[in-house]
Design goal:
Layout (H helix, E strand, L loop, with lengths): L9 E2 L6 E2 L2 E2 H8 L3 E5 H14 L5 E6 L6 H9 L3 E4 L2 H9 L7 E3 L6 H10 L3 E4 L2 H14 L3 E8 L22 E2 H12 L4 E7 L10 H20 L9 E3 L17 H15 L2 E4 L3 H4 L3 E13 L2 E6 L8 H5 L5 E3 L7 E6 L8 E8 L7 E4 L20 E6 L2 E6 L4 H5 L12
Parallel strand pairs: 4-20, 5-6, 5-13, 6-7, 7-8, 8-9, 9-10, 9-11, 11-12, 12-13, 15-17
Antiparallel strand pairs: 1-2, 2-3, 4-14, 14-15, 14-19, 16-19, 17-18, 20-21
Length: 431
Amino acid sequence: MGQGLLTDGFTRAGGPLACEGVPLAAIADAVGTPAYVYSAGTVRARLAALEAVLAGVPHRVHYALKANGTHGVLQVLRAAGAGADVVSGGELYRARRAGFAPSDIVFDGPGKSADELREAIRAGVRVINLESQGEAELVAALAADEGRVVPVGLRVNPEVTVENFHAYISTGEAGDKFGIPLDDAFGVAAWVAGRPSLRLVGLHMHVGSQLDTLGAFDEAVAKLAALLARLRAELPATAATLTLLDLGGGLPVAYGDGDRGADLEAYGEVVRRAHARTGCEILLEPGRLLVAEAGVLLTRVRYRKRSGGRDYVIVDAGMNDLIRPPLYDAFHAIEAVAPGEAALVASVVGPVCESGDFFGHGRPLPPVAPGDLIVLRTAGAYGSVMSSNYNARPRAAEVLVDGDRYAVVRRRESYEDLMRLENESPTWRSA
């Protein structure tokens, strides 16, 4: 567990695993499996721990919906005081449905459509972070059409070398698709500053996820602070409007297997330096940090078998439910719900018709049997939100636990849901 974080809401107390005050076996019996189970208390504790290290710094935490956009989870975060960070029109819609005010929403993303941008402009979100000259031109035109002056930031690629476990979650190196190249940022800012329908209010960055160290993050902050100082000096009109510095997200969580969690105290010091350098209000966009450890994927054993000298535990969850292990070779701790000594080393796999449908190999477990329950830990981020209907599998239910009570916040899909949007008797047309 990383320094500054509290223990999660999943405990045994000498018996079967429970989420806060609710036994996971009771949830499985009532709701079925596979199911995602989230601890509301853990979400609140993660946000509170982050807020504690930022005390005294003018800031706002905008939760990144892409980590987990389930309505019940969003309501917990909104009630706890978080804003929202969205990267699509659909996420904007979800944030609004969950009760986030437009002034509490930041709109990011590298390829926003005209329709999405128009929706954000009409809603009046706090800031739209631009990622290219072309996007700046489109927003300026849309804003003029709507008769609005739109607050915008520039997402700048600080071009730093990031240390994390997979290339797919690095976003701030030279040549990445994200953001405006550092050498081009001043020119784009000057163009934006000259548009009457735009108001340049900040600079933004996001260098990647699961950052092993804060060195690259601190370096990137310094580059943005230097750019901000130049803009204020050489574009006097921006001196009064440039008041926001958005540092994105990227703090790690401990999935197990020896990896480190976030050092919140050290992170807080970087944020304090950023404010001291710039005088800006600091915006932060954590996602994984707030929800990953708050969730598990609860699944039931279907079969045991042995093949080629390897023991297999086949469960009812599959790669369509949790794609991270085959996509990123990501590690999730796996444990049985019932207590027991680890007497088995097995590959835990799903029922999907793919060799890549696995959750972990060589994992120690009690001698589980068909019908027993196991969990994949730290599954609250990039789990359900990345799930699919591959193999025509209905997506899992989602359950929120708060103290000694629980609620289904997303029902399990039915077979009928799989066909709901398909037209079985289409009307044929000629071009």
